[in-house]
Design a protein that fits this description.
There is one protein chain. This protein has about 100 residues and is an alpha+beta fold. It has one domain (about 5-100): RelE-like (YaeB-like fold). It has helices at about 10-20, 25-45, 90-100, and strands at about 5, 50, 60-65, 70-75, 80, 85. Strand 2 and strand 3 form a beta hairpin. Helix 1 packs antiparallel against helix 2. The longest helix is centred in the middle third of the chain and has 20 residues, at about 25-45. The chain starts with a strand and ends with a helix.
Length: about 100
């Protein structure tokens, strides 16, 4: 059975993503969250799928892209612990600051 846990702020990330997309289309927002959850389930099985981003964090996090969003997680933790799900086109300094603030 595939298991993952979301950092409390990752739940907020998902809510913000859904609300942003749902402002234009509720069905599209639901589909996007379904796609993100499907990717999380896949990452549980294949956690090394993501890539590292030493320019964003010195922590051993991996990043996996789903559409315009990046999922940040440490690949070696079980269960898979999702630190953040963020809009990937943000300024890298903003992404780094967000990740730095989450433990």
């Amino acid at each position: 059975m595939s298991k993952f846990v979301l950092h409390p702020e990752a739940y907020s990330d998902l809510s913000e993503i859904w609300e942003y997309v749902a402002a234009d289309n509720h069905d599209a927002a639901d589909r996007l969250l379904d796609e993100i959850y499907a990717s999380l389930t896949l990452l549980v099985r294949f956690p090394k799928t993501g890539h590292s981003r030493p320019d964003l964090t010195s922590r051993p996090l991996r990043f996996h892209v789903v559409r315009d969003y990046v999922i940040a997680y440490p690949a070696d933790e079980k269960p898979l612990a999702v630190v953040a799900i963020l809009e990937g086109r943000r300024n890298p300094r903003v992404l780094a600051a967000i990740l730095n603030g989450r433990s």
